[in-house]
Design brief:
One of its GO terms (cellular component) is cytosol. The chain contains 16 helices and 15 strands. The strands form three sheets. The protein has a seven-stranded mixed sheet, with helices on both faces. A four-stranded mixed sheet has the order 1-2-3-13. Strand 5, helix 7 and strand 6 form a beta-alpha-beta unit. The radius of gyration is 22 Å and the shape is globular. The protein binds pyridoxal-5'-phosphate.
Length: about 450
């Protein structure tokens, strides 16, 4: 149909449904208006957003766990406008740079673990993970190891949606229907004690099982065919799963023994979400490469980075020029305006001590979820760390019987919470409600989250 191009009374919802394809949204039923929506989000301030029809909602998931400093920061708008007015864009090819890009790369290295040496900028977590894979392949080509190329990821790990990143992602719906190439990717055990431990197995026993599974995979494939292991310090989209105690040091020891690089996907954990600069700092992880995005700009503009550590950098630096210039990059790599947003965001984080604040607030945040929900007859597990929390629902606590998928428990719970004015995320894997609010929420906001979640649960069960 035709829609007017101007005028104040145009139906934005109709325009959207007839014009746009949305991520993770049914195609025809949305387009036809059967599923309702779109939800037109109009403005935001602190931890709250407002829809075009005037509903105020507490954003308990910070967008897609990315708006860490909260919405509506004037200092962000000012920094972005100032850079856009001065030099919105220039590319970074052939040695070009801009002041914000160079300063942001330096800042990232200052915050990162001591062995990190260089930063390659992209725009999304997915493209940064693609970069990491290309870097480890390039590294092994330079070292004359053309067969050492496979990447081990984990079941339920999430690494993005580009062709390579969705192959790394360990969730079947990212593969089914899309032919994401599985050839160079292997998946190993997800470190989730609740579901993965055998009856009576404690955390230490379960870590030993994860290690044995990894060893068996490496033995089956041959260490000389495996280039790298990629993992999120705390599993995010797969269910907000903190690692069991001792998991990372034990996994790392195996990787070292087999000369396998470690890529830490810090897209969610980086820049404060778990009360440290990086998730690596929380769990004693010593990665060779680190991926960051989301919290780097708090999503005011898109920006990601592949941070390259000494082990890989020293090889690239010494030997890659013989092959010509580094033949990887994007038009928008090191985009000056995005970099200015990154610098302004890290300034806010530093000025307001937001990372220390998460560390201080986390015990109260975690205890609130435990106290309110751990005893519920349909709650199998309440878990979390820093300002990440998840409630996993089961039909029967004792037998850990799951709800039938057709009951759509997670989706119904998050819809009920939304009715009450709270955004939570029904995680795509199982009946899990996820919480990852902006790092600036206060005690009143936390109380609101708990109360509205309680009401949602009471309305569904
Ligand atoms: N890696 C992790 C751990 C993520 O959580 C995400 C996004 O949620 C990505 C990568 C992909 O990032 P993007 O959606 O910016 O491509």
């Amino acid at each position: 149909e035709t829609t007017e191009r101007a005028g104040s009374n145009r139906d934005l919802g109709l325009i959207d449904r007839k014009s746009m394809i949305h991520p993770f949204t049914p195609l025809r039923t949305f387009s036809d208006g059967e599923t309702g929506g779109p939800v037109v989000v109009d403005r935001g301030s602190g931890a709250w957003i407002e829809t075009a029809d005037g509903r105020r909602l507490l954003d308990g998931f910070a967008g897609l766990y990315c708006v860490n400093i909260g919405y509506g920061r004037p200092e962000m708008a000012e920094a972005i406008a100032a850079q856009a007015g001065k030099l919105a864009y220039y590319h970074a090819y052939a040695g070009h740079t801009s002041e914000p890009a160079a300063l942001l790369a330096e800042r990232i290295l200052e915050m990162a673990p001591a062995n990190m040496r260089r930063v390659f900028f992209g725009l999304s977590g997915s493209d940064a993970n693609d970069t990491q894979v290309k870097l480890v392949w390039f590294y092994n080509n330079i070292l004359g190891r053309p067969t050492k190329k496979k990447i081990i990821a984990r079941e339920r790990g999430y690494h993005g949606a580009t062709v390579m990143a969705s192959s790394l992602t360990g969730m079947r719906f990212y593969h089914e229907g899309f032919d994401a190439p599985s050839g160079p990717v292997l998946h190993t055990t997800v470190p989730h004690h609740y579901w993965g431990a055998e009856p009576g197995m404690d955390e230490a026993g379960f870590v030993a099982k994860c290690v044995a599974d990894l060893e068996a995979l490496i033995a089956r494939e041959g260490a000389d065919t495996i280039a790298a292991f990629i993992g999120e310090p705390v599993l995010g989209t797969g269910g907000l799963i903190p690692p069991p105690a001792g998991y990372w040091p034990a996994i790392q020891a195996v990787l070292r023994r087999h000369d396998i690089l470690l890529i830490a996907d810090e897209v969610v954990c980086g820049f404060g979400r778990v009360g440290h600069n990086f998730g690596c700092d929380a769990y004693g992880i010593e990665p060779d490469l680190i991926t960051v995005a989301k919290g780097l700009t708090s999503a005011y503009l898109p920006l990601s980075a592949a941070i390259v550590g000494e082990r890989v950098w020293s090889v690239l630096e010494q030997s890659s020029d013989a092959r010509g210039p580094f033949a990887h990059g994007y038009t928008y790599s090191a985009h000056p305006t995005c970099a200015a947003a990154g610098l302004a965001n890290l300034d806010v984080i530093a000025r307001e001590n937001l990372i220390e604040r998460v560390a201080e607030f986390a015990p109260q945040f975690q205890a609130a979820f435990q106290d309110a929900f751990a005893g519920h007859p349909h709650v199998g597990e309440v878990r979390g760390t820093g300002m990440l929390a998840a409630i996993e629902f089961v039909a029967d606590r004792d037998s850990k019987r799951r709800f039938d998928l057709s009951e759509k428990i997670g989706a119904r719970l998050s819809a009920a919470a939304l009715e009450g004015g709270l955004i939570t995320r029904s995680m795509p894997h199982g009946d899990i409600l996820g919480f990852a609010p902006p790092l600036v929420i206060d005690t009143n906001d936390l109380d609101f989250m708990i109360e509205k979640t309680k009401s949602a649960i009471a309305s569904v069960f």
